[in-house]
Amino acid sequence: MAKHLAKDAGKAATASLGWWKAHRFLLLRRSCQLLIIALFMIGPALGVLRGNLSASTLFDTVPLTDPLILLQTIAAGHWPELAALLGGVIVVGFYAVLAPRVFCAWVCPLNMVTDLAAWLRRKLGIKLSYRWSSNLRYWLLPVLLLGSAVSGSVLWSWIDPVAALHRGLVFGMGAGWVLILLVFLLDLVLVEHGWCGHLCPLGATYGVIGRKSLVRITATNREACNKCMDCFNVCPEPEVLRQPLKGGDRKVMSQDCISCGRCIDVCSEEVLEFKIRIGANKDEG
Ligand code: SF4
Ligand code: SF4
User: Of 23, 41, 146, 258, most Cβ neighbours within 10 A?
Assistant: First the structure.
C-alpha cells in the first residue's frame, strides 16, 4: 500500500469502517469540550461547574485547580488557600491515573483552534515548517516558575491563550482574540503543531503529570498495518507512534501523546486501540 496524502487522512477508514467509526473519538471529545464550556456558561444558574479553568468548583463542593497556576502561585510566594491546594491534588490525581494529557484533547478549548489549523494545513498542503525542539515546552516550565518567583506574580496568567479563549467563550471575547489568532497563525503558517507540540507549558505540565497513567494507545494489531501513514498525518505528536508501530512495546508510552484517539479513528486496518496498560506486556514482540 502506498502512502496516503495528508489531505486524504481518514478517507480509507470512512470508506471501510463507516463514518461514525472513523470519527467517533473526534466527535466524543468535541462533545466533551463543548459540554464543559456549556457547564461553565450555565454554572451560575445550575451550580454544576462554577469558576473558570484556573479554579472552579464542581457541584459547589469539589474544588478543581489548574496545577500550573497553583505551582506559580507558590513560586511567587503566595501560599494558596486549603481549597485551592485540595483542588490541585484532585486534578493532579485524576490526570495522573487516567491517560497522558487527557486535558489537552478532551477539555482544553484551544485544542479546537490548533486542530483547525492542523486540518487546514493538511487540506492546503502546507509543508513548510520551521524546526523547533519539542522539548522547548519542558524548558519553559522552570523558566515560568523562576519568572513567577522573581516577579512575585503568576506570570502565565498574563499570556495564557487557553484561559483567554475559555474566558472569551464563557464570558465574552475581549482583546484575547489576538492571542488566539496568533496561536492559530503560528500553527498554520510557521510551525506544524507549533503551540501544543512545542510551546504550551500547560500541555507540558499535563504531560509530566500523566507519564505513568494507565490508559494507553496500543498498536494491538500492528501486523495489519499497511503503512498508509494516515495515523501519522493526523497525530499532533506523530513521533510518539513510531516505536509502537515498529517493534517492541506496542504501547504509546510517551507522555506527549494527548490521548485523543484520532489515530484509532483514521486507521482503516484497525491497528490501534485504547488499552489499560496493566498486563499489556504480553502483547510485546
Ligand atoms: S498543549 Fe496547551 S493549548 Fe494545546 S491542548 Fe494542551 S493545554 Fe491546550
Ligand atoms: S498517538 Fe493517537 S491518541 Fe496519541 S496524540 Fe497521536 S493521534 Fe492522538
Answer: 258
